[in-house]
Design brief:
- The complex is a heterotrimer of chains A (811), B (173) and C (292).
- Chain A has 811 residues and is α+β, with helices and mostly antiparallel strands.
- Chain A is built from 20 helices and 28 strands.
- In chain A, the strands form seven sheets. Chain A has a seven-stranded mixed beta sheet with strand order 3-5-1-12-9-10-11. Chain A has a five-stranded mixed beta sheet with strand order 7-15-14-13-8, with helices on both faces.
- Chain A is globular and about 90 Å long.
- The N terminus and C terminus of chain A are likely disordered.
- Chain B has two domains: 76 residues, Ubiquitin-like (UB roll) (Roll); 68 residues, Orthogonal Bundle (DNA polymerase, domain 1), CATH 1.10.150.120.
- Helices cover 28% and strands 16% of the residues of chain B.
- A five-stranded mixed beta sheet of chain B has the order 2-1-5-3-4, with helices on both faces.
- In chain B, strand 1 and strand 2 form a beta hairpin.
- The N and C termini of chain B lie far apart (54 Å).
- With 292 residues, chain C is an alpha+beta fold.
- In chain C, the strands form four sheets. Chain C has a five-stranded antiparallel beta sheet with strand order 4-5-10-6-7. In chain C, strands 11-12-13-14 form a four-stranded antiparallel beta sheet, with helices on both faces. A three-stranded parallel beta sheet of chain C has the order 1-3-2, with helices on one face.
- In chain C, strand 13 and strand 14 form a beta hairpin.
- In chain C, helix 11 crosses helix 12.
- The mean pLDDT of chain C is 95.
- Classes of the chains: A alpha+beta (811), B alpha+beta (173), C alpha+beta (292).
- Chains in contact: A-B, A-C, B-C.
């Protein structure tokens, strides 16, 4: 590892240990393996009661009346509340100026807009009784059904029923960035073509559902919630409940996966604390899976109307994309509009595709509100982009790989400003693609050989090259928060360090990495470092775990804090070594946990002596020095922009990772069965702090990308807006039998402006799947003229595509 | 408390269950799920609940030697039975070989599904599984959202191959 | 997702169970509960009483002789799957059981319970129909035998009358030279089939003498593919033309395929036809597997 190459945020960290870049076992594992990790559902408090929510079974209706009295009479029921009982509770704030305002109260007041919308809550001695009562409340609710809106077309129809009175239509937001160069490109190009690509509604689906426990403890409202952003949850809870923020403590305990849905602040995170305050006893709600499927946010429900201007030689002159997100009812904080904007901004990906005009529209419908899911609009963009390239290749006869080679970013083009404003500072785009091709070639040959004797099977290959915006702005998403995160670092008298982070642990191994970074910064062993996360009382304000930001913002804030702490520690050490000669401070080095002057290494003091002087034997401190050895860092990525310029351009991420995905599939013609034979990933997230964790992120992300390509689909009846899913029998999460053994390789293009050169790695794995797999299936079926434009691809859609036109039903 | 022998219909039942060597005698609602009995009555929260309809496998425990979904069993159905949960795997604070293999192979991320996988693996004899497809069939009763199953398969292969053939086993990792 | 309240009853005899079921018309039999308990968790089933028959010794028998395999209502799927005696006489049963749920559910679920549940996508009802199994049913009016094709009346609908329960199922052993395959198209491993097939071919040397095929997950009940069965005797191998004829016959046998969120009716018809051809062809190419 060449030290010189590593960008250093802190010039004073001169020492270098070897805690980074190694796949060490995780410190999180032991408690999880022993069954001792404490998830929200594992919290037991004396006197605790259980909550169950009454959720609308109607997709769109006025609530005429709710009779809670039958439920209240059940033995074991403590309280039943509706929206009108929630004294002092505000609606969720409107922070996003570009959206139509959605007035969302924690419980629906007089109108429900999706199946699953909570409109009453039952508190009971246990969940069984609470569910008994929920059924009685539901039965005693008088709804007046309203006409429903399910699809984008229905939402945009002239005479569409409106979800919100006072809106001119069902558009939650709409934006068009005009680009005269695109108009010119369309006039000048040899040909134009238009097509529509769609991706289906999915959800992040952590195996641990959401859950909230709330209790008043010593006058403070303590809320345990499975939330990826505990500080944001705290601010929001305080705001909506009208409670002073210092009186609210939010704890995100062990989390059974996040993947985006747990970024939002949900009605239950308001109502459960309110109940705890009102009843003055601990209250618990644990979401069940049936609730989860309709009440935690959905995602990816998008349509893209695309026009392409291209020349005979395959040159893509211009692209117009109208991305339309079906964001469900819109009743969610923060709103679900951002992913569709991110899709528009990500269309060009790892390619030089200059003239792009992006129009973005989000429509409201009577589906569950949509929001964050790993990838956050980027897998959808990759699908659009790679389909466009494959389509142009098909139209012009230029080879698909050759066309990509012409377009993919080369190192001599970097830094590269993407049409939407993103500044790709570094990366291995072309190299990754070539490496992927090289890895895929023998796999493709093998796959073809395996099926050579089976006339019913076709094999195909598909490609995706992407950039992944990492540590992005949260301002576009929330209209409020932006992009920093924090660390507070302390070295105690025994020389052991404690770091507390604004980040949250969601299973990504952040504690292990944080300990390594602290150990690196302070020349300690990781085992000397205690990591605290996910508790607003014990960790500094930060924005949480999302957007592939953890490695970046954690490293940045830890190094800033370490920088400040070390400066003081060196002054103390200098004083102890030379009895007050301040001049030697510049010469004091820290190596292997000891402070000394290079010329005289035998004279040395260790962290315990220095820290003891700071905390206890303060008589050993230099005269006039403030006691204590603790510091904080608030790291705000410097290149990150939060608002667009006049041309609508914005560098929305601190840095950009990149990758290549190549899928090799077999398709059985007679039944439409699809098998992923091989899946190649070349991944570049800059410097890898922990290669094992990076690989784990890629593995899990790819599995979710495959899931979204072939299996998972939240289907609604388009006539009634009723969900056609209630369980894992309808929502098909892949098992180990569906995910092939993945073939991985890595490059490390250090991010020039990021701490330690790192880029994020959380979402890249998810991005390439739909693009590569639709490409591969289309390739397999090319001789039949099949060109896949929508996910999911299933045996049913394959068969429908293979049928002679006119004979088959739509699927 | 007089013991209910289930010989007349009742909404409350007396049961006696041994969990991880500890005997529990309780009067519980007949409708109480085994998963809730383990978590709320026995206080063993290592058994996780992920779907409550028998698909995700997070709640898998061992009932009289066989892996079973504790969310799809009533507590009263295991009256008189012996249950093992994830808390019973480690010995003297040390990880069992499969736990150790999960740890070394980074086979868990959020850890929520992990106890279920471990209990299914604990319940079977590797000798009964001929190849990787058999292993997939066994583990396809469990959903993991974090790992893409890659390192789980690797971890299991490392232990099972050792159990089957010390010099290179038949389970590819 | 917690069950509604109910009374639990664990009778000490089959007659006690019958009496309880007769007294409480909406009571449900609990054996393994692998379909029932999840349905109760969703409150799709809210029986006022469960009659737990799992511990009735009389229902725990697995009797195997050269003519038939009889399985009591308390016997788990996994027990049958792992039985070497059953495997010797009727390998088809173990073959079918491998497709049922997962090992974790087969450890608790019973063979007879699958029949009582009558899920159109279940493998065991299809196998029972294909092999002309008989169910023994006990009720207030005594014991009766019901052939499987008469027992399965519709989706989740059986011939069981108030107060009755299945006490055992009897599978006749197939003639010498019979092989049976189960083939499925499912979205995911271990899923309920989107399209399923049980195929039994009895061969004399290479020549098919007798064919039994039953499609499942394609209609409200498993359906015997009578025209396909009519075409196969005498066949030694399936060339392209014969394959097409067979596929057409299979498609014709499936008069009224079901459509749902997983597949359209048209897909099911096409895929069943393809599955029939693929399975028969593969069985014909595999002369090794000639045990019953």
């Amino acid at each position: 590892m060449a030290v010189e190459e590593i960008p250093q945020i802190s010039p004073i960290i001169r020492h270098r240990t070897s805690h980074l870049g190694r796949a060490v076992p995780r410190r999180e594992d032991r408690s999880a393996l022993l069954g001792q990790s404490q998830y929200v559902a594992d919290i037991r408090l004396p006197g605790m009661v259980e909550v169950a929510f009454v959720r609308s079974g109607e997709p769109h209706a006025l609530i005429r009346s709710i009779d809670t009295s039958p439920a209240e009479q059940i033995e074991g029921v403590v309280k039943v509340v509706t929206a009108h009982d929630l004294d002092g509770v505000e609606q969720f704030p409107h922070f996003i100026e570009y959206n139509q305002p959605v007035d969302q109260f924690p419980l629906a007041r007089d109108r429900v807009r999706y199946v699953g919308s909570p409109y009453a809550a039952v508190v009971a001695m246990d969940r069984y009784v609470a569910e008994d009562a929920v059924n009685l409340v539901a039965a005693a609710t008088d709804f007046e059904p309203l006409p429903t809106v399910t699809t984008i077309d229905q939402a945009l129809a002239e005479d569409a029923p409106l979800l919100y009175e006072g809106w001119p239509d069902n558009r939650l937001t709409t934006a068009l960035i005009e680009n005269p160069a695109v108009d010119r490109a369309f006039e000048e190009a040899d040909h134009t073509f238009s097509e529509t690509y769609t991706s289906q509604r999915q959800t992040g689906l952590p195996i641990e559902t959401r859950g909230v426990v709330a209790a008043l403890r010593e006058g403070q409202l303590t809320v345990w919630t499975s939330n990826q952003s505990p500080h944001i949850a705290r601010t929001t809870i305080a705001l909506v409940l009208g409670v002073p923020e210092p009186e609210v403590r939010v704890i995100a305990p062990a989390m059974g996966g996040g993947f985006g849905p747990k970024c939002h602040v949900y009605p239950e995170e308001i109502v459960v604390p309110w109940l705890a305050m009102t009843l003055n006893r601990p209250v618990r709600w644990v979401e069940d899976r049936a609730e989860h499927l309709v009440s935690s946010v959905h995602a990816r429900d998008q349509r893209h109307d695309v026009e392409i201007a291209y020349d005979d030689d395959g040159t893509i002159r211009g692209i117009r994309v109208h991305s339309i997100g079906n964001v469900g009812s819109g009743e969610i904080f923060m709103p679900g509009t951002a992913p569709t904007f991110v899709t528009g901004g990500s269309i060009s990906g790892a390619y030089e595709l200059p003239n792009i005009e992006i129009q973005t529209t989000c429509v409201v419908t009577n589906k569950t509100p949509s929001g964050a899911y790993r990838g956050f609009g980027i897998p959808e963009a990759a699908l659009v982009r790679e389909r466009i390239i494959d389509r142009v290749a098909l139209l012009t006869g230029v080879d698909r790989v050759e066309l990509r080679r012409r377009l993919v970013l080369r190192e001599d083009q970097l830094p590269f400003r993407m049409p939407a404003g993103g500044i790709v500072d570094s990366g291995s785009h072309a190299r990754s693609f070539e490496r992927g091709l090289e890895m895929a070639e023998p796999l493709l040959t093998d796959a073809r050989e395996r099926y050579a004797d089976d006339p019913d099977v076709r094999v195909g290959i598909g490609y995706a090259n992407y950039v992944e915006p990492t540590a992005p702005t949260y301002h576009l998403t929330t209209g409020f928060w932006a992009g920093y995160d924090s660390a507070t670092l302390r070295v105690d008298g025994d020389g052991k360090a404690r770091v507390s982070l604004g980040l949250a642990a969601i299973g990504q191994g952040a504690e292990t990495t944080a300990a390594s970074v602290v150990a690196e910064a302070l020349s300690l062993q990781p085992s000397d470092v205690t990591v605290v996360m996910g508790d607003t009382e014990r960790s500094p304000y930060g924005l949480g775990a999302w957007g592939s930001r953890g490695a970046i913002v954690m490293s940045g804030s830890i190094l800033m804090a370490a920088d400040r702490l070390l400066e003081k520690a060196r002054r103390i050490a200098a004083h102890m070594l030379e009895a007050g000669d301040e001049d030697i401070v510049q010469d004091v080095v820290l190596r292997d946990g000891f402070f000394f002057v290079e010329e005289d290494p035998d004279q040395r003091v260790g962290w315990p002596e220095v820290a003891t002087a700071a905390w206890a034997r303060t008589v050993d401190l230099p005269e006039g020095m403030e006691p204590g050895l603790e510091s904080s860092g608030y790291y705000d990525p410097s290149d990150l922009e939060h608002t667009a310029d006049e041309a609508g351009r914005l560098n929305a991420a601190a840095t950009w990772a990149n990758g290549t995905h190549i899928a090799i599939v077999s398709v059985r013609l007679s039944t439409g069965e699809i098998k992923i034979e091989d899946y190649v990933v070349v991944h570049d997230c800059g410097r890898m702090l922990h290669p094992g964790l990076v690989e784990g992120q890629v593995h899990g992300g790819v599995a979710q990308g495959i899931a979204g390509s072939l299996y998972e689909h939240l289907q609604y009846d388009s006539d009634t807006a009723r969900p056609q899913f209630a369980s894992f029998l309808e929502y098909l999460v892949p098992t180990c039998a569906e995910i092939p053994k993945l073939t991985l390789d890595h490059f490390e293009s250090y991010a020039p402006h990021m701490p330690l050169g790192v880029k994020g790695a959380g979402e890249g794995g998810t991005i390439g799947g739909p693009a590569a797999i639709t490409g591969a299936v289309s390739d397999a079926l090319a001789e039949f003229g099949v060109f896949v434009t929508a996910t999911p691809i299933t045996p049913v859609t394959i068969r429908a595509a293979l049928r002679p036109t006119g004979s088959g039903e739509a699927s | 408390m007089e013991r209910q022998d289930h010989d007349s219909p009742s909404a409350q039942v007396d049961i006696e269950v041994t969990i991880n060597g500890e005997r529990f005698r309780n009067r519980v609602p007949a409708r109480l799920l085994l998963s809730d009995f383990i978590r709320d009555v026995a206080g063993l929260t290592g058994t996780h609940v992920g779907c409550e309809h028998g698909v995700c496998g997070a709640c898998t425990v061992i009932v009289d030697g066989d892996a079973a979904r504790s969310c799809s069993l009533l507590a009263v159905q295991v009256d008189g039975c012996t249950i093992r949960t994830v808390e019973d795997l480690a010995t003297d604070g040390g990880l069992c070989p499969m736990q150790q293999a999960f740890h070394e192979n980074l086979a868990l991320q959020c850890g929520f599904c992990t106890p279920g996988f471990l209990m299914t693996l604990e319940s079977v004899d590797p000798q009964d599984f001929a190849d990787a497809d058999d292993l997939f069939a066994l583990l396809s009763g469990h959903l993991c959202r974090c790992t893409g199953y890659q390192n789980i398969i690797k971890a299991v292969a490392s232990v099972w191959n050792e159990a089957i053939e010390p010099h290179g086993g038949r389970f590819q990792s | 997702m917690k069950p509604a309240s109910f009374d639990y009853y664990r009778p000490s005899s089959v007659s006690g169970a019958v009496q309880a079921l007769a007294d409480s018309p909406f009571a449900k039999v609990l054996a393994g509960g692998q379909s029932l308990i999840p349905a109760m968790n969703f409150r799709l089933a809210t029986p006022p009483m469960l009659v737990d028959i799992a511990r009735l010794e009389d229902l725990h028998g697995v009797e195997v002789d050269e003519h038939e395999v009889t399985i009591g209502a308390g016997v788990t799927q996994r027990h049958v799957e792992m039985s070497t005696r059953v495997a010797e006489v009727m390998p088809a049963l173990a073959e079918a059981l491998r497709w049922v749920g997962h090992i974790q559910t087969r450890n608790r679920g019973t063979v007879c319970g699958s029949l009582a549940h009558a899920d159109p996508s279940g493998e065991l009802p299809a196998l029972a129909i294909n092999t002309d199994a008989d169910l023994t049913v006990e009720g207030p009016n005594g014991i009766r035998e019901v052939p499987a094709p008469d027992f399965i009346r519709g989706p989740f609908w059986t011939d069981l009358r108030p107060g009755e329960l299945i006490t055992s199922i009897r599978f006749p052993v197939a003639p010498r030279g019979t092989t049976t395959r189960v083939a499925e198209i499912a979205h995911r491993s271990g899923d309920f089939a989107t399209v399923g097939l049980v195929a039994s071919l009895t061969r004399d040397g290479r020549t098919i003498r007798r064919a039994r095929l039953c499609g499942f997950a394609v209609a409200g009940t498993p359906i015997r593919l009578r025209s396909v069965e009519g075409l196969l005797p005498g066949v030694e191998q399936l060339d392209e033309t014969a394959g097409r004829t067979l596929a057409d016959a299979a498609a014709a046998d499936l008069e009224d395929p079901v459509g749902d969120i997983h597949a359209t009716g048209q897909y099911r018809r096409e895929a069943l036809a393809a599955l029939v051809v693929r399975t028969v062809r593969s069985m014909l190419e595999d002369p090794q597997r000639e045990a019953s």
